[in-house]
Specification:
five-stranded antiparallel beta sheet; Immunoglobulin-like; 122 residues; mainly beta; three-stranded antiparallel beta sheet; 0% helix
Protein backbone atom coordinates (compact mmCIF):
# COMPACT_ATOMS: atom_id res chain seq x y z
CA UNK A 1 0.00 0.00 0.00
CA UNK A 2 1.07 3.53 -0.67
CA UNK A 3 0.85 6.01 2.16
CA UNK A 4 1.59 9.69 2.52
CA UNK A 5 1.80 12.38 -0.11
CA UNK A 6 4.47 15.04 -0.21
CA UNK A 7 2.72 17.23 -2.75
CA UNK A 8 1.24 20.59 -1.90
CA UNK A 9 -2.31 20.19 -0.70
CA UNK A 10 -4.95 21.91 -2.78
CA UNK A 11 -7.63 21.63 -0.14
CA UNK A 12 -9.24 24.85 0.92
CA UNK A 13 -7.98 26.42 4.10
CA UNK A 14 -9.67 28.95 6.31
CA UNK A 15 -9.00 32.59 5.37
CA UNK A 16 -5.57 33.83 6.40
CA UNK A 17 -6.56 37.50 6.64
CA UNK A 18 -9.20 39.47 8.50
CA UNK A 19 -11.79 41.70 6.85
CA UNK A 20 -10.38 45.12 6.02
CA UNK A 21 -11.50 48.70 6.60
CA UNK A 22 -13.98 47.89 9.34
CA UNK A 23 -15.88 51.02 10.32
CA UNK A 24 -18.75 51.64 12.71
CA UNK A 25 -21.41 54.29 12.29
CA UNK A 26 -24.02 54.81 15.02
CA UNK A 27 -27.40 55.09 13.31
CA UNK A 28 -29.83 55.41 16.20
CA UNK A 29 -29.76 55.05 19.96
CA UNK A 30 -30.12 51.30 19.49
CA UNK A 31 -28.33 50.44 16.26
CA UNK A 32 -24.83 50.66 14.78
CA UNK A 33 -24.01 50.15 11.13
CA UNK A 34 -20.92 48.06 10.47
CA UNK A 35 -19.18 48.27 7.10
CA UNK A 36 -16.08 46.43 5.90
CA UNK A 37 -14.35 45.00 2.88
CA UNK A 38 -13.41 41.42 2.07
CA UNK A 39 -9.96 40.17 3.07
CA UNK A 40 -7.19 40.53 0.52
CA UNK A 41 -7.64 38.19 -2.43
CA UNK A 42 -4.46 36.24 -1.73
CA UNK A 43 -5.51 35.67 1.88
CA UNK A 44 -9.02 34.39 1.20
CA UNK A 45 -7.96 30.78 0.49
CA UNK A 46 -11.09 30.12 -1.50
CA UNK A 47 -14.46 31.74 -1.87
CA UNK A 48 -15.60 33.83 1.10
CA UNK A 49 -19.02 32.46 1.97
CA UNK A 50 -19.94 34.86 4.70
CA UNK A 51 -18.98 36.72 7.82
CA UNK A 52 -19.35 36.47 11.54
CA UNK A 53 -19.80 39.76 13.35
CA UNK A 54 -19.01 39.67 17.04
CA UNK A 55 -20.19 42.52 19.23
CA UNK A 56 -20.17 43.11 22.95
CA UNK A 57 -21.08 45.84 25.35
CA UNK A 58 -18.04 47.51 26.84
CA UNK A 59 -19.69 48.77 30.00
CA UNK A 60 -18.32 47.84 33.45
CA UNK A 61 -21.28 45.59 34.22
CA UNK A 62 -21.17 43.53 31.06
CA UNK A 63 -19.66 40.06 30.93
CA UNK A 64 -17.39 40.79 27.99
CA UNK A 65 -18.76 37.94 25.91
CA UNK A 66 -19.24 38.51 22.20
CA UNK A 67 -22.64 37.96 20.67
CA UNK A 68 -22.15 36.48 17.21
CA UNK A 69 -24.29 37.17 14.17
CA UNK A 70 -23.70 35.56 10.80
CA UNK A 71 -24.41 36.89 7.33
CA UNK A 72 -23.83 35.74 3.77
CA UNK A 73 -21.16 37.45 1.73
CA UNK A 74 -22.62 39.71 -0.94
CA UNK A 75 -19.51 41.09 -2.64
CA UNK A 76 -16.33 42.99 -1.92
CA UNK A 77 -18.00 45.57 0.28
CA UNK A 78 -20.30 44.55 3.11
CA UNK A 79 -22.78 46.32 5.36
CA UNK A 80 -24.52 44.98 8.44
CA UNK A 81 -26.63 46.85 10.97
CA UNK A 82 -26.56 45.73 14.58
CA UNK A 83 -29.80 46.63 16.30
CA UNK A 84 -31.63 46.05 19.57
CA UNK A 85 -28.63 47.57 21.32
CA UNK A 86 -28.68 49.53 24.55
CA UNK A 87 -29.03 53.29 24.39
CA UNK A 88 -25.88 55.37 24.80
CA UNK A 89 -23.68 52.33 25.43
CA UNK A 90 -20.25 51.58 24.02
CA UNK A 91 -19.88 48.45 21.92
CA UNK A 92 -16.80 46.69 20.61
CA UNK A 93 -17.11 44.96 17.25
CA UNK A 94 -14.95 42.43 15.40
CA UNK A 95 -15.55 40.80 12.02
CA UNK A 96 -14.36 37.41 10.74
CA UNK A 97 -14.61 35.99 7.25
CA UNK A 98 -15.31 32.33 6.67
CA UNK A 99 -15.17 29.97 3.72
CA UNK A 100 -15.99 26.30 3.33
CA UNK A 101 -12.90 25.30 5.29
CA UNK A 102 -13.41 27.44 8.35
CA UNK A 103 -13.29 30.85 9.93
CA UNK A 104 -10.36 33.21 9.56
CA UNK A 105 -8.80 35.69 11.99
CA UNK A 106 -10.93 38.47 13.39
CA UNK A 107 -10.36 42.11 12.67
CA UNK A 108 -9.06 44.18 15.55
CA UNK A 109 -11.85 45.36 17.80
CA UNK A 110 -13.18 48.83 17.17
CA UNK A 111 -15.60 50.71 19.37
CA UNK A 112 -18.64 52.86 18.82
CA UNK A 113 -21.20 54.34 21.16
CA UNK A 114 -24.89 54.27 20.34
CA UNK A 115 -26.58 57.65 20.22
CA UNK A 116 -28.29 59.25 23.14
CA UNK A 117 -32.03 58.87 22.88
CA UNK A 118 -33.66 62.00 21.58
CA UNK A 119 -36.66 63.10 19.56
CA UNK A 120 -36.84 61.05 16.42
CA UNK A 121 -36.83 63.14 13.27
CA UNK A 122 -38.81 61.81 10.35
Amino acid sequence: GSSGSSGISTEEAAPDGPPMDVTLQPVTSQSIQVTWKAPKKELQNGVIRGYQIGYRENSPGSNGQYSIVEMKATGDSEVYTLDNLKKFAQYGVVVQAFNRAGTGPSSSEINATTLESGPSSG
